[in-house]
Design a protein that fits this description.
The structure holds two protein chains of two kinds. By secondary structure, chain A is an alpha+beta fold. The longest helix of chain A has about 45 residues. In chain A, the strands form seven sheets. In chain A, strands 9, 11, 12, 16, 17 and 18 form a six-stranded mixed beta sheet that branches. In chain A, strands 8, 10, 13, 14 and 15 form a five-stranded antiparallel beta sheet that branches. In chain A, strands 19, 21, 22, 23 and 24 form a five-stranded antiparallel beta sheet that branches. In chain A, a hairpin with a 4-residue loop joins β26 and β27. Chain A is elongated. Chain A contains ten helices and 29 strands. By secondary structure, chain B is an alpha+beta fold. In chain B, α7 packs antiparallel against α8. Chain B is elongated and about 70 Å long. The chains are: A alpha+beta, B alpha+beta. Chains A and B meet through α5, β29 and α6 of A and α1, β1, α3, α4 and α5 of B. β29 of chain A pairs antiparallel with β1 of chain B, so a sheet runs across the interface.
Amino acid sequence: MRCGVVRGGGSGVAAVSFAVALFCVAFGASTASAEPLWYATLEPKEIPLGSVARLTMTNIGTVSKPPSLPVVEGLSFEVIGHTRQFEFSNRNSVPASSIIIEVTPQLAGTYYIPPITPTAQPLILHVTVAHAGAAASEPGNTNYLIRPPVQAIAPKKGSPLTDGPAFVRLNLPSRDVFVGESVPVDIVVGVRSGIVTALNGLPTLHGGAFTLNNLSHQPDREERIVDATHITLLTWHSLLAAVKPGMFSLDVETPLTVKISKRSRQDSALDELLGDPFLQNYFGASVSKQITVASPSARLNVLPIPAQGRPADFSGAVGTFKIASELSPARGAAGDPLTLRLRVSGAGNFDRVNSAMFEHLNDWKTYPPKSSFHAGDGIGYRGEKIFEQPLVASRAGTHSIPPLAFSYFDPATRRFETARSAVLTIEIAPTLADQAPSPAVRLLALRPDRADQGPQTTSLTPLYLRPTFFAVPSLTTLMFAGTWLVSRRRQATLATIRISRSARRHLADLAAAAVARDVPSYFATARAMLLEALAQRWQLSVAQLTDDVLRSRLGTESEDIREFFLISDQARYGRSTSAAVDFSRWTQLIRREIGMKERR
Amino acid sequence: MSRLPAGRSMIASAVLASMMAALTIFSLTGPARAAEPGYSAARLYNEANAYARAGKPGMAVLHYERAALLAPGDADIDANLGLVLRSQHLAVAPRSTVARMLSWPSPSTAALGGELGLLLLGGALLAAKRRMSNRTVRWVAGALGVLLLSLPVCQGMLLWPRLKDAVVIAHEAQVLESPVPMAAPLFTLPEAQTVSVLAGHDEFLLIRSPDDRSGWVSAASVARVVSRR
């Protein structure tokens, strides 16, 4: 507000001028001596435990030293930013500056934040349980797990975090954790736009006693104005698990590429006032540099899971769970497959949630179960794991499936808990062959029954298709074949014997005819003997041995036989005399022919 | 030791073979066997009728099929079987005249006839070898022997496929892709449907339906016509 001088005439004018001057002095003095105007706002005034509220302390007018942060047991205060703006009052705009403070409650309840100035009013913050009316033991509603409270992490002195281009913050729970327990954590990386040009990799955890789930390449992104500076907040949600007990330190590092200004501080202030990185870079005022930004070390106490009281079926599941079982279909027949499902829902380390279901069940045939997990959030901390086991009923009747049990360690109660499902009852129909008959068949006009039972047999297989029966025709066939062979051999033997006796008789006749030099008789007998021998040899009858047959069958080696037949023909027709006949020669021929056959 | 004349030894062999055959057949089908609890075509037929009247067509068809194995040409069995199948809207396979003729004698009678035919044929061949008896008589005996021998052979060829049959006795049998309870279903077979059993695995049977589809079915849902020991 300016003080102006009004020009006028005479004493009246002088008086008015004096009054105005006095007013200005008084007003100026009052203005100069007045206390700075500070006021505070708290938004929201009611939050669930695990959330944060924002306390904004605003100063209007001249810049003055800000009041000290309030101290309230159960609340932590952290300055997260400064802003400058203009406040409008009575159509005038006045500069104002604000300090933004994040308020994090540790416990539920009602908090009174003392006034920041003697004349200001106190602020009241109501902190409620996560879900109204929910029991503390209800799975998934453990307060400190909804959004872990932020530890008061002070930036390292001298690091870029203080007013540098970026900062990293690791949000851990403020309580002790257990070995194997899945703990939701947030990794927040704040980067100043225009200064940080690239994120060269995902944040990495330094802490050998912990495992961290793979971080997504698409973190949550939020833009904020802090101290008139545009900051981008990148938040990764993940699950942390400790592999061994003890007190450990953790921190997170992030590689970045930043633009470092080469200009003086005054020029840099001007650059910031201009607020245009393009202009800064255009004039060659910055160079790129790769840096690594780390969060302050955080300490976490890991407790071992107690060995005492550990159930036999405990598989390492830590968290809060509830289970339910069901059988589908709801009805079935003996021999039909049914599916027994066990649903384990809640929050915790689902990778250690296992159940063998039923390895053996009376009156049921069981098969190995299979499992599937359905995450309820993006990190797999909440969700439902379903186990499915096929069952086949071996008999009809009412069956009761006993309850299934699942043991886990609850970190909230620090006790082993065993959840049990309800008993399932199912009605199994008898084998369908014994069920109620089809009504249509009853009305059939069937042919009547037989009174006589008829012949019986021990097997439905036809007699001739039974292996035992094959022996009968086989033996019969063998017998006939044997008889055939024996008969054939015997015929040959008999024929041989028959020819030998007659041959001796004929030879005697032949000798007698030769002695008597009875040529016709001699050759008749000899011819008959030779023809019989040839017939036997060629397996023909004597009547079939015509001249043509003899001519064709007798080869060049049988010249003497040809000559014999010629001479015998001559003798038959009386042309040979006894003196011309060589009886001994022909007798030897006959003997030879008969002898060959006899030796066979 | 004196030998029998050739013809007499042949006759002796034939008589001995006939006696052995008769003894074997008698031992397989005689009164001693009948005294043991077994199967009878008439009893199976009566049981099938009872199942049919009780509204259990699957069991009825099973017993009709079994009775038909023991008495292939029985008109009552065929008629009632056809009646039950038609009531279930199932196809009744028609039988040719030759099949009907071959089914006329019972399997035991056909077996005995076949053995007799074998004896006649063998005797005729031996007689021809020895040139014994009249040629016409030998030819008639040989032809009759061939005819009698072909009867069990042809009847066996007809009945052989039916030994692998099974009947669906459940109200509905689901045919699966593989022999596990959770396998994907392929199709469904109605009660009283006759199928061919190809193989078995645990509690499942690989079957082929009349329309040439195959798959695995629970052994509890079907019953083989001829039980395996």
